[in-house]
Amino acid sequence: MVGGQNLRAVRPAERPGTDPAPGGGPLRKSLAVLEALAEAPRPLTLSDLSRRTGQPKSTLHRQLRILTELGLVIRMESKSYQLGTYLFHLAATSGPARLHSLGHKVTPYLIELFQLTRKIVSLGLLSGTRIQHVGTLYGQEHIPLATALRRPFPAHASAAGKLLLAKNPDVPADLGEGGGGGTRREAARADAMRRELERIRRTGLSYAPSQHIPGLVELAAPVTLGRGGPVAALVVGDTVHNRDLRSAGRVLLDTVGAIEESLLQPP
After folding, report:
1. Is the per-residue pLDDT at 266 higher than 80?
2. Domain spanning 87-264 has what CATH number?
3. Could you give the CA distance from residue 2 to residue 7 in angstroms, rounded to a whole number?
4. Who is most buried in 25, 81, 237, 253, counting CB within 10 A?
């Protein structure tokens, strides 16, 4: 799924040899495992999960290895499995309540995007004029940068925050530290921000080094979380010296489309 060049996100129904019906495809299989664990009153063994999800043990073993690696599932000493802390952290965030109820549905797509890019993956939510990242997935090499994303910070200081500001007409552009003010320098800063937000509205993507987290660069695209739901920023992040981040634009937009299509389906 990850090896090779020119990777793009492919919906389960598009993969050769996968069943587009409910239960088929790696995303749906991951979701089925998470749902089974969430509904169980106790940890489940591999045999328990096979009976509840209808998946063979060999498939479950691969799924659980990845889910455990990402902290979505915990493997007990008894060789049984229970839901990890990731989804509980997602539900405990200060983002819009609508997102909390959609965590199970969105998570498999975040996993897919992480596996395709091997970069930092998260959802950014606007809270006033600050950006809050939730559901962050990352590899060992990105631990310092991903850890810095845990706390909210000014939206104007990141690509994800600027994207959401551009999507929110009620937020003023003069968001630099110190407010709008009246100095010539502050007026120039506000004018530059307005031009940048307009560019983001035209292109639909936001790409910029973080002004809050040294060494981080982000590529962000807007995703609507269900009918009438909030707009979030789906984010791929990497170190600033990586010049290949823009090439993730296609896979990022494909993932946005898959998430929005999935959330519009009736339950």
Report:
1. no
2. 3.30.450.40
3. 7
4. 237
